[in-house]
Design brief:
The protein is of the alpha+beta class and 344 residues long. The protein has two domains: 185 residues, no CATH class; 124 residues, no CATH class. The protein is built from twelve helices and twelve strands. An eight-stranded mixed sheet has the order 3-2-6-7-8-9-1-10, with helices on both faces. A four-stranded antiparallel sheet has the order 5-4-12-11, with no helix packed on it. Helix 7 runs antiparallel to helix 10. The longest helix is centred in the last third of the chain and has 20 residues. It is globular. The two termini are 38 Å apart. 33% of the residues are buried. Bound molecules: iron/sulfur cluster (2 copies). One iron/sulfur cluster (SF4) binds next to helix 9. The site of one iron/sulfur cluster (SF4) has 13 residues, from helix 11.
């Protein structure tokens, strides 16, 4: 992998040059929080943000999208609106890149989703390193560093950004800027190592995940699940903000008095009461405790069995979003019978 440096005062120039590769989107501030949005001017970008409300997942798997239209005599017409739009997502944190790599395994692996794949091909990712706050545990989830899934990745090392070039497209972006990027020297390599070390020490939350699937197996009947079921409101906020939750529903909107219509895909949540309701009226997860238990088991145990790692990346969004303060780290700590969680 090629490693270069970009002087900080040249970042604006770089941002203006890369717009030839697509529409520029980045985190912007909105009512004191951050959202990924199309930039109308580069000065709106906030690269030193904590976390966005919704993860970049919304670009690859939109909250609501029409899949196809149908009309008797015409058959099915796939909806391709926006699939070829070229976008540059600037300022994606490592955990969110990691989450996109997880979604790749689901939507571009064994069961290929053409809508997801088209967007993934046309959306470039420029990542940026960050420092953890009190809700981040991406290091525990091995998602504080990514080595693929981005086109460029920037590390703030003081006067420079050190840039990892991840793809040929990333290389093209560098080349398009002429001589803005420079080779790194030994002192800057030390700056990188120093930053990496400082970041490691900045984490306030630590979760041991090595034997977590086994712990979950042992604690299947734990009273914790009933307690959480009593507390949980089934609002689904935790799923909506999660960068790796990918449940969706499909619904047909049929035109009145006709057999024509469109099929839409929309985000769903395993916490919703209707999620496991089937046509006969049977609900396979009718209680709140069974639903919240399922969410934890799928993230920390089921996904490990299928893909070899948990599907949680430790971004902390569900902790921020939960109206009744259900905290994934505290739940894991309790399952491990660790008592030192009062300080969180
Ligand atoms: S479960 Fe929570 S902490 Fe883990 S990736 Fe999803 S939102 Fe982030
Ligand atoms: S955000 Fe909290 S209350 Fe809402 S469904 Fe998730 S765990 Fe339950």
């Amino acid at each position: 992998m090629k490693i270069l440096k970009l002087p900080k005062e040249k970042l604006d120039l770089f941002a203006s040059v890369v717009q030839q590769f697509g529409e520029l989107h980045a985190p912007v501030e909105q009512d004191g929080r951050y959202v990924f949005k199309r930039l109308t001017r580069w000065s709106d970008a906030r690269l030193e943000y904590d976390r966005t409300i919704l993860p970049p997942k919304k670009y690859f798997l939109p909250p609501r999208e029409a899949l196809f239209r149908y009309r008797p005599g015409e058959g099915f017409v796939p909806n391709t609106d926006g699939l070829d739009q070229r976008i540059i997502l600037f300022g994606v944190h490592a955990c969110d890149v990691y989450a996109i790599n997880i979604l790749d395994r689901v939507f571009a692996g064994k069961y290929k989703d053409p809508y997801y794949q088209a967007r993934r091909k046309n959306i470039a990712i420029i990542g940026i390193d960050c420092l953890p706050d009190k809700q981040c545990f991406c290091r525990s989830m091995r998602a504080d560093f990514v080595d693929h899934g981005f086109d460029l990745f920037f590390y703030d090392t003081g006067d420079y950004y050190q840039a990892l070039v991840g793809t040929a497209l990333g290389d093209d972006m560098v080349l398009a800027t002429g001589n803005l990027f420079e080779p790194v020297d030994a002192a800057e390599i030390d700056d990188y190592k120093r930053r990496s070390w400082n970041k490691r020490r900045a984490f306030q939350v630590d979760v041991e995940i090595r034997d977590l699937p086994e712990i979950f197996e042992m604690e299947y009947q734990s009273e914790i699940w009933d307690e959480l079921g009593e507390k949980c409101l089934s609002c689904g906020s935790c799923s909506m903000v999660c960068p790796t939750c990918y449940c969706y529903d499909v619904a047909d909107d049929v035109e009145l008095g006709s057999r024509a219509g469109k099929r839409t895909r929309l985000w769903d949540s395993c916490l919703f009461a209707s999620h496991a309701l089937v046509g006969s009226g049977e609900n396979f997860r009718g209680s709140r405790s069974s639903r919240i238990k399922y969410r934890f088991y799928h993230k920390q145990r089921g996904f490990v069995a299928e893909y070899g790692r948990p599907s949680c990346v430790g971004c902390g969004r569900c902790v921020s979003a939960c109206p009744v303060h259900i905290d994934v780290v505290q739940v894991i700590d309790r399952l491990r019978r660790v008592e030192d969680v009062a300080s969180r």
